[in-house]
Every structure is written in structure tokens, then in C-alpha cells.
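Pasting as-is:
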Amino acid sequence: MDLRLLSSFLAVVEEGHFKRAAARLFLSPPAVTQHIRQLESELGTPLLHRHPVSPTRAGARLAGHARTLLAAADAAMDDMAEVIRDAPPDAPRPLRIGIMGHGSAELTPAAINAFRRARPEVPIELRQLDFTEHVTALTEDRVDIAFVRPAPDDDRISVDVLTTEQRIVAVPEGSALVDARAEGVRVADILDLPFVQVPGHTPAAFTDYLYFNHEAQRRGPDFALTPQEVLTGVVAGRAAGSGLKSFARYYAWPGAVFVPVLDAPWESSYLAVRADETDPEVKVFRALTMALAPELRPRIGR
């Protein structure tokens, strides 16, 4: 809805006169009249009685909304003016870092803190990514760099391997698999689990990872986009989930048990960037992360 039309409408309501409203807005009366007609056409109902000028029932309702919207717009402009006024003209652009789940375990906060020490003048924005975003967050320019798993299957994305870990399944504490948490289970033992479902537009690379390359496992009653949503279904006894071994350290929820999957291939976490990325800050972050990875891998996996 055009705020100019709302401004003209509210001025007529408050002045009770088209000419006085036009003078208040420094517009011509025909322009104000046209604004009112356009607004009535868009809403499909009369908003003003003309003789004398007063709001209809719909117009009275709209006037309240108009005051709120115009006040919000004014507040937004004031806030932006303050930010622009206070920001130095050469303020650096923030480095936007996307993180799926717990990222690459201990390596993720270590890399972020190393970048802060190396480039204290560059702001950092952290964005939590859901299961559908480990390609689109980068290709749609919502983040500059991302900790993801598994590797995106997309030529527009370049990745570095950070950690490689054993796979686990998350099951409720009442599950028959709980007794095997020390010894582990095999993929054949988990094929009938009610794994959480994910949206249809989730990248195939991620669904293959989530379901151990067994599409038939997508049968649970619960949908999930984040590890927290997975675990909500698990502790409620409705669903099962999967992840890397470090998942258990970061999501130690009461009621959830994590069981190693012995014959599943170990999976990696990755640092992903756009293949054509030229931002020097991204290059610095990437170099720092790759320098730290060998040091922290023994604590995480391999």
C-alpha cells in the first residue's frame, strides 16, 4: 500500500476538508482527490462521505491503521538517519557467516574468534542456516561464507573440508537401540526408524546425508528444519534424526540418546564460499579457518 495515499487520506480525515488537507501536504486539491480515489479503488470500498467530509465505517477503520503505518515509517526513517549519521563514511561491510547446526564443532568458534583478532575493524554477522539453505544462503547473497554439511552439489559453490566424523543416530531414550549406544548399530538396524521429514525443496545432497542415502527412511510424522526441531521430535518419542558424532556434545538434550552407526561412511563438515568470491575478508577468514583445522581435527574427529 502506497504510504503517500495513506498520508493524503489521513490528512483529509483529520482536516475534514480536501483543500485544507492539500494545503497541509503542499499538494493541489485535485492531487489529494486522486489519491483518495485510487485508495478507494484499491480497497474496493468508499472511505469518505463527501458532504460533509467524514470517514465511512471502513474509512474510520483504515484511519487507525494509517496512523500506525505512517508513524512506523517515520520512526524507521529517523532510525536510519541516526545510523547513517553516526556511521563513519568508510565503515567496512560486515562479514556474514552462515552456520548450519553446530557448524564444524569447536572449529567454528575458534575460526570466528581468530578472525575477530586478526580483523577487529570488520563487523561480523552470524546467521543460523536451516537444512534447506546450505546452497541458497550463498547463491542468494544472504551470507558470504558458511559452515555446512555435506558438500553442496553446485558448481557455484567452492568448499574446503574442515572435519570428518563418525555418523550417529538420535533416538528417544525409550528406543530399543539405546542398549546399543556403547557398541553401535549398523545402517540395516536403523532403516525402520521414523526419521524426521524435511521440505521437498531441501537439496538432494542433504537428504542423502540425513537418511544415509536411503530415501525410504523419510517416513516420520514430524517435519524439521533445524537440529533443535529434530531433537524436539526425538525427545517426544515421535522421530529419529542423524548427525555427526560431535552433535552429541552440542545437543545433549535430556531424553535423547546418540548411537554410533558403525558401517556408515564418515562424513565431513565444510567451509563453503561462492566460487567467484573476490572479497578479501572472505579470503582472510578462509585462510584462518584452514590454518586452524589441522590443530583442532584430533579433538573432533579426523
